[in-house]
Please model this.
Amino acid sequence: MFKHSEYQYLDLMKDIMKNGVRKVDRGTTDASYTVFGRQMRFDLSQGFPLLTTKKVYWKGVLHELYWFLSGQSNIKYLVDNNVHIWDDYPFRKYKILNVKSQMLNANGQSLLEVTVAVAIGTLVVAALTFATIFSLRNANFAKNSAQATKLAQEGIERVRSSRDRNQCIEGLTNVNSWNGSTDCSAVSGSGSIWTYPISGDCDKPDLPQAGFCYFKVNSTTGQLTNIGFSFTPTSSVPLPAQAEGIPTTNPVFKRVILLSDDLNHDKNFTNDDYQNQKEVTVIVTWNDFAGTHESRLTTILRKL
Model:
């Protein structure tokens, strides 16, 4: 958490007044006080660091920031908007030399100075543009990561509520609810999920390797629906196509719930206490410029 921009600026002013080294410009004879290596850092996701304790040329800041972000290196846009903070080398010198109708003086230094200034300006603009874009991307990643973690926690709570209310479970051959219920007539099966170990096909106890059942939970009824299974549900394995999209329209995140009996993580369900507890994992994924990311939370859900 960065300190508020206003306090960072005031602290820097105090530091300069207390520890600054006095320097006199040989050309203008103006004196200034300087310190070395100080930095101010701002979280742009919290807003633009516009100071109130000093006069800020907001119009210049606005147009210059747009100039940086648009990747321009020609100062014509700034000049057209009456912003002249970059005029000194590339523009003003060009005008003076153009009026005199000469691009070189006797020593050939004017053109070199202009070229160096333009090159330096281009590098500065490129560096500032990269830093700004990188900062914005990091802020967006942090925002999505926090939201994905929140959605994963919400998924675990929905499964816990489904167990507490003995909601229906759809898509398993021998199971119709958590504790077995006659109220789930629309769901195939008639048994309790605690009766059957969850194996490769999600409800048959005759396979030698434990699997992971993919589910999604209805946000209104709390009903779980089986949408597939996997032996190795890692980040490299795509989620089922029926995964829950959040939000429903133009989804940014995908969420699935995994139920497993492999509590010992030894790929063998026969030595696990599947009749009394299940491992619940909620996976939330999203995509950005860097690829696919996921947030994953796991808990043990016990039979009531």
